[in-house]
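Need residues for this backbone.
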């Protein structure tokens, strides 16, 4: 179990520069304390404000965000379950490939529904409008070519 005094390896990006810093993370009563190699405070992130920066998949290190564009990548795998208990918005792993497949099927289904709605609702109205704009001579020429 992870106690309050233990520190855990992580990397920190401040969101302002491309530099990545090796840091240590300590679990405090109400917050996550991020320290540099000398033990100096880099940031303090309240558990209530912690979020996953992106979906977390098994085998990949979890990335957290809290304030602004800063990101924290946890390198100790045992830390995420502990954080998930303390920080309500931090969930553990997603369902992996199966969950991704369901999500993409939902997106594809939504795209098909939008396209079908366009074809059924908007296209007929646009055709009527365009038909009033097309000159009669074009209609006759097109008819002659089709019959012809």
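Answer:
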């Amino acid at each position: 179990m992870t106690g309050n005094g233990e520190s855990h390896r992580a990397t920190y990006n401040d969101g302002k520069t491309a530099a990545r810093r090796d840091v240590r993370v300590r679990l405090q009563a109400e917050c996550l304390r991020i320290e540099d190699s000398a033990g100096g405070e880099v940031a303090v992130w309240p558990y209530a404000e912690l979020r996953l920066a992106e979906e977390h998949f098994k085998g990949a290190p979890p990335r957290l965000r809290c304030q602004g564009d800063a990101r924290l990548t946890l390198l100790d795998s045992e830390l995420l379950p502990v954080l998930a208990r303390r920080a309500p918005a931090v969930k553990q792993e997603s369902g992996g490939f199966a969950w991704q497949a369901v999500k993409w099927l939902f997106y594809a289904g939504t795209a098909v529904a939008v396209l079908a709605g366009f074809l059924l609702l908007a296209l007929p109205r646009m055709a009527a409008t365009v038909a009033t704009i097309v000159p009669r001579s074009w209609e006759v020429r097109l008819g002659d070519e089709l019959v012809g």
